[in-house]
């Protein structure tokens, strides 16, 4: 299953956006209002939970400054990744898009597609105000 957020324009350079997303504690400011838990576990790992959902642990898997950050599931029963692509749009602005990729059975895909699509859209649209 592959999902994409809309491309969001941020009035910051790719380096500034990358620096913000590379610090996992900043993800707390991007989370939706229905977050019930957020905790930084290590410099490159955090756990979060949304109300009514199980806890998810994300860990930085790959960083390619200033254009790409890959977060992946750290433990748990499901394997997925969340990729932040950052592209320079002009001298002092960037386009950011989040891509979600996971290998799920058809039933699971059907159940989680809507909530995950909404989740990555919320993360992406929160970036301009959070930086």
Helix/strand layout:
Layout: E1 2-4, E2 8-10, H1 14-22, E3 35-42, E4 45-50, E5 56-64, E6 68-73, E7 80-90, E8 93-102, H2 106-130
Antiparallel strand pairs: 1-8, 2-8, 3-4, 4-5, 5-6, 6-7, 7-8
Entry keywords:
8 strands, alpha+beta, globular, eight-stranded antiparallel beta sheet, about 45% strand, about 130 residues
Q: Gyration radius, to the nearest Å?
A: 14 Å
Written as H for each helix and E for each strand, in order along the chain, the element string is: EEHEEEEEEH
| Average pLDDT rating | 95
How many DSSP-defined strands? 8
Number of H- or I-type helical stretches: 2
Largest sheet: 8 strands, antiparallel
Strand residue content = 35-45%
- Distance N terminus to C terminus? 29 Å
* Structural class assignment: alpha+beta
Describe the structure.
Strands 1, 2, 3, 4, 5, 6, 7 and 8 form an eight-stranded antiparallel β-sheet that branches. The chain is built from two helices and eight strands, in the order ββαββββββα. The model has no long low-confidence stretch (mean pLDDT 95). The longest helix has 25 residues, at 106-130. The relative contact order is 0.27. A hairpin with a 6-residue loop joins β6 (68-73) and β7. It has 131 residues and is of the alpha+beta class. Helix content is 26%, strand content 43%.
């Amino acid at each position: 299953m592959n999902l994409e957020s809309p491309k969001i324009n941020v009035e910051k350079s790719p380096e500034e956006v990358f620096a913000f997303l590379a610090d996992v504690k900043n993800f707390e400011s991007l989370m939706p209002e229905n977050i019930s838990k957020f905790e930084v576990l290590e410099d490159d790992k955090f756990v979060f939970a949304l109300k009514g959902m199980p806890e998810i642990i994300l860990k930085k898997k790959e960083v390619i400054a200033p254009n790409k950050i890959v977060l992946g599931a750290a433990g748990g029963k499901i394997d997925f990744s969340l990729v932040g692509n950052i592209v320079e749009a002009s001298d002092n602005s960037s386009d950011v898009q989040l891509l979600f990729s996971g290998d799920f059975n058809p039933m699971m895909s059907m159940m989680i597609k809507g909530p995950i699509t909404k989740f990555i859209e919320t993360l992406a649209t929160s970036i301009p105000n959070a930086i």
